[in-house]
Amino acid sequence: MLFWLVPALDRLLLPLVYLNVHIHEWCHAVMAIATGGAVQHIMVFAQGNGVTPVSGGSLPLVAAAGYLGASAIGGWMQWSSRTQDGARLTLKVVGTGLAVSVLIWVRGDAVGVTTGILWAAALWFAALKFSGDALVFVAQFVGLQQCINSIQSVLTLYRLTAFGETQSDAGILADATGTSPIFWAVLWCGISLAVVFVSLRRAWSNPDAKPARR
Questions:
Q1: pTM of the model
Q2: In whole angstroms, what is the distance from residue 15 CA to residue 199 CA?
Q3: Given 3-state DSSP classes, what are the helix, strand and coil percentages for the chain, each rounded to the nearest 5?
């Protein structure tokens, strides 16, 4: 957590920022396809941001999918990685999703393509080479950092929106619905915090615990 709070140290976590951006943009793309739309491409930039132009689909769901989907995936990684088998499967699923995203959608910026490939390879390597507590630790660490980064991203969106920034998912949705960008930023922030809280609470409960008998 300290690394996220100290500006001089947060650069050390830039690779995890890239992972979060890949998952964020991937969620936009998947939701666009799921609601009948089409994806042009995904671009992830060296600055740690990204863009996913889409056509068609449900704009409210596509716009919300980035922040909420990334938060949900981070929470799911925590919850599903409580055991060795769960952690192995989780890393393989996320690694495969990244590989498919790079193959089908990620284009343009070399940083985006390279980081997508490296993360897909790293997650699969960990799934195949690690075992026991080390495997669980890696999967849950990545999931926890995904949760932290997702919440930080939504809070950043809120601050930008509060100061009038409209070139964002919240701004795009506000223009389409005639509402305020701050409404969507606050709503997504609240939902993301709730999703992460519930996911982490379930993840850190004892997976072997049984209900008490009366």
A1: 0.82
A2: 23
A3: 75, 5, 20
Average pLDDT over residues 168-188: 75
Q: Kind of pairing, strands 38-39 and 43-44?
A: unpaired
H or E, element range at 172? helix 169-177
Collect all residues with Cβ–Cβ distance below 8 Å to 170 and sequence separation of at least 6: 63, 157, 161, 181, 182, 184, 185, 188
Rounded to whole angstroms, how far apart are CA atoms 172 and 50?
Answer: 15
Tell me which residue of 99, 78, 100, 90 sits closest to 197, measured CA to CA.
78
- Distance CA(171)–CA(180), nearest Å, equals 8
The CB-side HSE value for 192 (13 A sphere, CA atoms) comes to 30
Measured from the Cβ of residue 157, the count of other Cβ atoms closer than 10 Å reads 25
Name the residue type at position 150.
Answer: S
Q: How far apart are CA 66 and CA 64, in angstroms?
A: 6
Whole-number pLDDT of residue 214: 41
For range 39-61, the mean pLDDT: 92
- The Cα–Cα gap between 174 and 153 comes to 18
More confident residue, 31 or 207: 31
